[in-house]
Amino acid sequence: MGKILAKWGWKAPITRKKEVDDLRKQAQHLPPVVEKDLEMSPAQLFLFFRDTRHITSLIDFQKIRFSIVPATQPDSADQSEADNVADAGTKSILRASGSEGAIKHLVENLDLRWKAMKTVDFTVAEVLGIRASPETLQLVSNTTGAYVMAMSDDTYRAFAFNEGKARQAKRLLQMLQLKNTILADHRPLSAITSRNTPPVGHKQNDFSLYPFLSALPDPLEWNVRMALGTTPTFRVRRVASWSAKSTKELEHSRERVGEARPILVKDAEGSEGREADETEQLEMEQRTSLDGVVAGLMDQARESGMGLTQKPTFNVSATFGHLLFPSNTPGTQGVFDNPLPGDWPITSLSTVMPTADRRPKFTSTLTPAMVHFPITTKSIRQRRVRYRCDPALDPAGSTYLACTFTYPDVPDRAEGSWQDELDRMLSEAEAESEATLTPTPELDGVEAKLSLAEASEAEIGDVEDLADRLQNGAEAGNFDETPEASLPHLRFTAEIGRIVETDILMPDRPVDMRLSAHSSWSLPIKAIPRKLNVLFMNIEHRASKLRDATVFPAPEIVHTNVGDIKRAWYLEKDEEVEIVESVLDAKLGVEARMAERSEPLASTSTSTSTDSIPSEVSGDGAQEAANTQVVLRNVNSTEQTLQDRGASYTQVMVHGDSVPDAFWREVANVSREIPEGAGLRQTMRTLF
C-alpha cells in the first residue's frame, strides 16, 4: 500500500494514534497555562465586555480564555465609602487562563483602562426627577455604552472610558423623563369611532385590546422602547368577525373626520375631573366635534406669556402612530394575555390606566396608505433641535424653543467610473483626517479617540468669535441696541412658542393620531442662546464643505432672557430629519406636488416656524396662502443622542389659524385601511 501511494505521489494516511502523539509533542513545548482571578465591579465588567474588538484580540492572539465566577472575598478595606455603596456585594471574579506573558499583558492593560475610566455623578433633580428602574438603567447603559447605576435615592453615577458617553447617558435619562412623564401626563386621551353603521360583521359599541408586535422595519420609538422594555403591549380595535370582508378603504376615505365626536377617556394630569364619568363623556360627545377640539387647542396656543409683541404664526398638525397600552402586571403575563379581557364600550378603557405609568405610549409610524402609495418628491434634509421650558416654570411643558437648519442641496456630480468616485472619496477622507485630527498616543485596547471638543476645536474657534459678536453690544432681550442689519445672516431659523397636544384613539382605523396646535414667534438673533449659535454655525460650516455635521450634539440645557423673562430650557429632541412632502390646495382640493424646494430663509428674524410654509409664498398673500395650503409629509428622523435607526412617520399639517375641510379630508384619506394585496399604485383623492 505504501508503494502504491508513493507511486501516485500521495501521502500516507495519519492514524489517530500518530495525531495524538504529535499533539502531545507540541504541548510539551507550549508555555504552562496559569490562571489569574481579577476582581471587577459591575461597571468594570460591563465596560470590559463592551469592547468586543479588544476581547477578540485577547482570545485570538493572546490565547486567553475567560470565565466569570461569583466573588468569594469581601471588598478591600481601602475602598472609599462611595465605592462601597456602588459595589458592595455585587463584585464578580473574571478568571483569565493563558500563558504567563499573556496574563501579565492583560493585567497591565486593565490597569491602564481603569485609570482611563471616567465617572460623571448627577442628581435626580438634574434629570428632571426620574426614578429609573434597573431595567431602564440597563437599557440606557446598553444604548450609550456607559454603565449607569443608582448610587442612592437621589444620585446616579455613569462610568465610561469617554466622558462624552457618560454625559450622553445623563442626557438620555433627562430626555426620557421629559418625553415619557412630564409631557405625556398633560396630554388628554380621547377616542373617535365611526359615525356610520359599522361594516358587516362588526359590533357597534364593542371594543377590545389586541396584542401589538412591532416589525423590524418599523420599530418603536426609542423612548417607548425604554419605557416598556419587554412588557407586552396592546392596541384598541373594534371587535370584528373573522368572516367579515373589508370594505373600509372607501368608507374611511369618505368619512368626515372633523365632525367625529370624541369620547373623553382620560383627562390631563392636574385637570379638574381627571376621569370623566359616563354622564360627562356623553355631554362632551353631544356638544363638540374633533373640529371643536382643534379650536380649543388653538385657543390654548394663543396664550402668549412670551414677552413678545409681534403677531404669532399658527399651524395645526396630525401625526400618525400607535397608542400602545402596557400590561397592568408586567412580567407575569404572556404576550397574548389581555389586561382587560372580553369586549366592552370604549369608556371602560380607564380601568386599565390606574396609574400614570400605565397610560398608553404613543409611537409614531407611517400609515399603510403612505407605505403602499409613498410621496415621490425630492427630499429635504434638516437638523432640528427642540427644547421645553423648565417644568418649575411651565409644569405642562407646553412652551418650547426650537432651531432648524436646512442643509443645502448637494449638486449632482458628473457621471464617472466607480474608481474615480472611490479615489475622490478617499482623498476627501484623508484631507479631512489631516485637517481635524492630530496624532494621539493610544493605549493598547483603550479607546483613545479625541473628544468632540478636541476634534472640532479649530472649527469651533472659527465661529465662537462670530457668536460673541451676536451677544456683544446688547444683553439678550435688549434688541434695539444693535441693529440687526449689522449682524451676519444665518441659515438656521429660531423660534419660541407654545404647543398644545391631545392623543386620539381611532379603533376603526389601522393607526391612531396625535393632534397638535402650535403658536410661534420668531426669536431675534441676539436672543438666541450662545451655545445654539455655536452649534449651528459649526453645522453650517461643515455642511458647506459637504462634511458630516452630525458630530456636534446639542447642549442639554440652554438659557434665554426674552422680554425680561428668564427661562431655562431642557432638551426634548435633537434629530436629523429627511422630509418628503406634497402641498395640497385646500380650495381646489387637488394635489400640487413640490418639484423643487426653495432656498431656506436667510435670517432667523424672518422665520415663521420650524415647519415653515414654502418660501415662494411671500408678501401680503403669504398668510392667505398659508390658510389654503395643507401639507402632507413623510418624515424619517434619527435621534442624534442615539445614532441608531430613526422613526418614520406620516404627518398632515395646515398653516394658519383656521383648519379647512381639506385638512380633515387628507387625515381621513391618509389614515384609511388598505386591504391585503393592495399592489396597484392609485390615489383615493379622486373620490372627492
What's the count of strands?
Answer: 21
General shape: globular
Placed side by side, the strands forming the largest sheet appear as: 11-16-15-14-13-18-20-21
Please count the helical segments: 19
Determine the N-to-C terminus distance: 90 Å
Query: What is the radius of gyration computed over CA atoms, rounded to a whole number of angstroms?
Result: 30 Å
Binned, the helix content reads 25-40%
Mean pLDDT: 75
Q: State the domain count.
A: 3
Query: Spans of 5+ residues with little confidence (pLDDT < 50)?
Result: 74-89, 270-276, 436-458, 473-488, 588-626, 679-688
Main beta-sheet annotation: 8 strands, antiparallel, barrel
Residues in β-strands, percent: 25-35%
Q: Which structural class do the helices and strands define?
A: alpha+beta
Outline the structure in words.
The protein is built from 19 helices and 21 strands. The chain is α+β, with helices and mostly antiparallel strands. The protein has three domains: 30-116, Ribosomal Protein S8, Chain: A, domain 1, CATH 3.30.1370.10; 119-186, Ribosomal Protein S8, Chain: A, domain 1, CATH 3.30.1370; 189-410 and 491-687, no CATH class. The strands form three sheets. It has an eight-stranded antiparallel β-barrel with strand order 11-16-15-14-13-18-20-21, surrounded by five helices.
